[in-house]
Amino acid sequence: MSLDARTTVGVVGAGTMGAGIAQVAATAGHRVLVHDADAEAMARARKVLEHIHNRLVEKGRLTRAAAEETLARVSFEHRVEKLAPCGLVIEAIVEDLDVKRALFASLEGVVDQGCVLATNTSSLSVSAIASACRENARVLGVHFFNPAPLMPLVEVVPAIQTKEDVVESTRRRIDDWGKTTVRVKDTPGFIVNRVARPFYGEALRILDEGIADAATIDWAMTEIGGFRMGPFALMDLIGNDVNYAVTETVFRAFYNDPRYKPSFTQKRMVEAGLLGRKSGRGFYDYSDDARNPDPNRDETLGREILNRILVMLINEAADALYWGIASRDDIDLAMTKGVNYPRGLLLWADQFGIREVLAHLDALQKEYAEDRYRPSPLLRRMAQEGATFW
Ligand SMILES: NC(=O)c1ccc[n+]([C@@H]2O[C@H](COP(=O)([O-])OP(=O)(O)OC[C@H]3O[C@@H](n4cnc5c(N)ncnc54)[C@H](O)[C@@H]3O)[C@@H](O)[C@H]2O)c1
């Protein structure tokens, strides 16, 4: 298995992610062949790439010649058969297992035996996608974040079937594109979409209990916690429909584990069309004459909110390590590079104190008598031993 700078890269799906991934690979010098079932999607993607490169030239980030060379490396193909020369194909089509499996099965008839087939799925089982192929050892997940050209993190997800040299060579190639790769087991939500759930879920819970309003929770997380955005502002940016769907998928995939239980408040907002920025209103009002409430800047309340959300995040990170989902380094890298957390959660746990984290979780579990607050066995073990993550 060898992927190098001369490898032709195929991208199937020319939507938001496919266009971004094509840009990343072309910028790194690859010849890129993009295919989409919808000709209009390809025309739009071509326009998007031209527009982005024009802007980069205007801003002085790229010479006109370099921009033209990069664009010339990308071609749009109406027939999937044209992807035959590819050594790596990255799929970024609709998030539907049957549709993806059908595509992977047909790609096998197009490309050579040595071609690596990768999926950008956010929530489906990579092993289930791989099993659609006869030669399933060459299939793996490469999960880019949106927007792909700007977000540094890529989660590399071997299926049960994937051969080690496929994982290694794909990872090296994507590292060479200037990305930060982390390796993660094929489990729901991978690292980021699993470990980040309490950032939204616990914030919604605090809101639902009437402990604080959205503005106050956001203030606590940004001003005291140092997060770039508060959970409610971020849910409004992501879109409540998208954020709710991820939570529900993770909750279901974990056999209804109460740790990931979705919130009725967010569900009703989706049903009411209060999707966030894109619909003009979500937790906040985005109209021109909007007057959003000021936060209650009570330091004690703010710390209580931050600590409750933070210990729940740390519990997820510790549990992901406990179950071997990813390494300590990769879990901390994923959260700082994938969702811009101010610190890695395991490092933050050490600084907060493992015993203090455990005491907070134990207190929450005692108060609510809910399995949602059960501490990871790893935290309990480490607290007994006086151990630290780093
Ligand atoms: N949008 C995100 O923030 C994000 C982030 C990470 C991963 N993902 C994942 O990336 C994938 C693509 O997401 P997106 O947001 O770019 O979607 P999108 O809707 O913007 O684009 C999907 C494209 O796939 C095309 N398509 C559908 N079925 C096809 C087929 N059988 N053959 C060829 N083309 C087909 C559609 O015409 C469309 O242009 C999904 O698996 C999604 O879960 C999305």
How do the strands and helices of this protein lay out in sequence?
Elements: E1 9-12, H1 16-27, E2 32-35, H2 39-58, H3 64-72, E3 74-77, E4 88-91, H4 97-108, E5 116-119, H5 126-130, E6 139-144, E7 153-158, H6 164-176, E8 180-183, H7 192-195, H8 197-208, H9 214-224, H10 231-238, H11 240-253, H12 264-271, H13 299-322, H14 328-338, H15 345-352, H16 354-368, H17 377-385
Parallel strand pairs: 1-2, 1-4, 2-3, 4-5, 5-6, 7-8
Antiparallel strand pairs: 6-7
What does this 3D model show about the protein?
With 390 residues, the protein is an alpha/beta fold. The chain has two domains: 9-183, NAD(P)-binding Rossmann-like Domain (Rossmann fold), CATH 3.40.50; 194-385, N-(1-d-carboxylethyl)-l-norvaline Dehydrogenase, domain 2, CATH 1.10.1040.50. It is built from 17 helices and eight strands. It has helices at residues 16-27, 39-58, 64-72, 97-108, 126-130, 164-176, 192-195, 197-208, 214-224, 231-238, 240-253, 264-271, 299-322, 328-338, 345-352, 354-368, 377-385; strands spanning 9-12, 32-35, 74-77, 88-91, 116-119, 139-144, 153-158, 180-183. The chain has an eight-stranded mixed beta sheet, sandwiched between helices. Helix 10 packs across helix 11, helix 13 (299-322) crosses helix 15 (345-352) and helix 16 (354-368) crosses helix 17. The chain is globular, with a radius of gyration of 22 Å. The relative contact order is 0.09. Residues 12-18, 36-38, 41, 92-95, 99, 103, 120-122, 144-146 line the site of nicotinamide-adenine-dinucleotide (NAD).
